[in-house]
Amino acid sequence: MKTFKAVRLIKKIRLAPSRWSFVSVPRKGKTFLWDDRPGIYLLEWWEGPRRRRERAGVSPAEALEALRRKRLELAGALVAEQFPQGKTAESFIAGTPIPEAIEAFLTHVRIHSPAKPSTVQRYQAVMAHMERLLGGCRWVEAVGRAEVERYKAARSSEPPGGGRRAARVHPSTINFELGVLRTFFHFVQRELGVKMENPCARFKRLRDVAQKAQGHTPVYTAEEIRRLLEVCEREDRRCC
To answer: Which residues of the chain have pLDDT under 70?
Structure first.
């Protein structure tokens, strides 16, 4: 008898006008390998000895959102069974797992930018940095301004790759990555319905050493300008 309510994603595919087949949606690491054949996605899980199925939509984005919500729903039900003495399931559900949110985001990017594979690759790299550097955070809702500052500091001290050990990641690269993270958290808010503040909404951009050395353009006071003009007038009179 199955007691753990693990949810599986499957697809009902039309093989012929009156013939259907149920197939699993395979994974490669943390990424689903989506099937292009026409059909609908379904969620499958067990409740005791009984197998349950539920429609999850026709697009990968719909399927991922349905999978996320069903996992949270069943996790809450399982907790309620284990803690029945006045404790609600909601108090034990921590939030949206970061890997699932990243997977939904990258799927969204692939669907809406099919002609820009390089963009998808760069976004994947940024998401990998976020998972690696914010490994202490399991849930999207746990990422705040402090975690973003920690990400900036960690990336600023890392080599950019390619064997150049003495160099560090350029500030413009980190600024780009923070822009991607801002887009990611906006997606989480808008598409996944997660109620949280965007920790990258107004991040402070980094400046490189060369820009800092240049500083600001000198600004003269009114008295300094008056003196400069007097010197110029005296020089003009001498020339005449």
So the answer is: 1-5, 74-94, 161-166, 208-220, 231-240
Asked whether residue 206 falls in the same domain as residue 137, the answer is yes
Same domain, 99 and 207: yes
Task: Say how many domains are in the chain.
Answer: 2
> 162: domain range?
95-240
Helices of type H across the chain: 60-82, 98-112, 117-133, 145-156, 171-190, 209-214, 222-239
pTM score, whole prediction: 0.55
Q: Which residues of 61-88 are buried (b: 16+ CB within 10 A; e: fewer)?
A: bebbbbbbbbbbebbbeebeeeeeeeee
Q: How many angstroms from the chain centroid is the CA of residue 110?
A: 14
Q: Which residues pair with 9 in a beta bridge?
A: 43
Q: Any idea what DSSP says for residue 141?
A: G
- Read off the DSSP letter of residue 222: H
d(CA 17, CA 165): 60
Under 8 Å between Cβ of 197 and 186? no
